[in-house]
Each structure stands twice: as C-alpha cells, then as structure tokens.
Design a protein that fits this description.
It is a single chain. The protein has helices spanning 14-25, 40-52, 108-121, 138-146, 169-179, and strands at residues 7-11, 56-63, 66-74, 91-98, 128-131, 150-156, 161-168. The protein is an alpha+beta fold. 33% of the residues lie in helices and 27% in strands. It has a 7-stranded mixed β-sheet with strand order 1-2-3-4-5-7-6, sandwiched between helices. The protein has 5 helices and 7 strands; from the N terminus they run βααβββαβαββα.
C-alpha cells in the first residue's frame, strides 16, 4: 500500500472537526450521506450526539497525516438497524465517507475501506461487519463486495431503502488475499 501512503484513524473531535466534516457531508459527492442541506451547527450537533452515544462512535481518517475520510462504528443492536434484522454476537455496523477531492488517487477509496475493515477487525470481539447502504449506491456496493461483503437482502429504514450486507473476518481475509 506504499503507493497510496499511510492511513491512520483517530477519534473524531466534534467541535474541532465540525467545519471540515460540514464541507465533506454537504458536498454533492456525499449525496448518500443525506446531509446535503445541513448547516455547520447541524453537523456539529450530530457529531456531538454521536460522541455522547454509548453505542455509536465517529473517527477521522488521515492520509499521510491529513484528514481524508470519516468512519463511523456502531452497535447494530441499538443504532441504525435495531429491530430490522437479527443481530449476532460480534456484529459491528460501519459507515465511511471519503473526503471529496479535485485530485482523485486511483485505488484510494478501496485502500480506505480496507483500512476501515482492518480497524474494525483489530478488535477480537468483532466477528462480522454489517453495512446498510442505499440500494441506489452502486459504487459502494462494488467496494463492499471487493472487501468481502455479501448482500443479504433489501430492508426499509426510515430514511432509505437499504441493502443489508455482511462481511465476516474470514470473508475479509479471503478478499484481501484474492486482491494481493
């Protein structure tokens, strides 16, 4: 991954990072994030809410030390998917957003989702990662499948029709091995 650079992840600071996040989540490329019309204070309030939540956490991803992506991790028993599927022990929900750029780097988004998955599976308690992207987000479906996610079914969430997909540690490792 030396061609991409170094990707690291740190806890998000809602007050310090709100302006940056506001630029990212309101950008036209972040349409599936559903915050297009958010004001700065809306973004700060949302990430303060996440920071205070016992079962939802946000992180800032850095590329060679510079902010480059957002990662959220959540317990699907309590957040996002509560009551929409039968969670298993070790399930962890995930969202990620790559910062918009005028200079895209080939393979960068794939490197980001790989780093996110490595971070999630670094916790030995994580057995399976769960995602629920919009059914219309074909680009993220392809990325998810590239790192081992298997779509299970479409579900109706209050804000969207979503494709419920799962990736076990073994599926992730197999996908990583296949791409090496």
């Amino acid at each position: 991954m030396s061609t991409i650079g170094t990707l690291t992840i740190r806890p998000l600071d809602p007050e310090k990072d709100a302006e940056l996040l506001h630029r990212w989540v309101t950008h036209r490329k972040a349409a599936f994030w559903m915050m297009q019309d958010a004001k700065l204070e809306d973004v700060e309030r949302e990430y303060m809410r996440i920071a205070a939540h016992e079962h939802h956490h946000a992180y800032l991803g850095l590329h060679d030390g510079e902010p480059a992506f957002l990662m959220e991790k959540y317990d699907p028993r309590y957040v996002e998917l509560a009551g929409l599927y039968e969670p298993e022990p070790g399930d962890v929900g995930m969202h990620f957003l790559v910062a918009p750029t005028d200079r895209p780097v080939h393979g960068f988004t794939r490197a980001v989702i790989t780093a996110v998955m490595e971070e999630l599976f670094a916790d030995p308690a994580t057995r399976r990662v769960v995602v629920e992207p919009d059914v219309g987000n074909k680009a993220v479906h392809a990325l998810n499948e590239a790192v081992g996610f298997v779509p299970e079914r479409e579900i109706d969430k209050p804000e969207k029709r979503a494709l419920l997909s799962f990736c076990t540690r073994e599926q992730f490792e197999a996908a990583r091995g296949a791409s090496a």
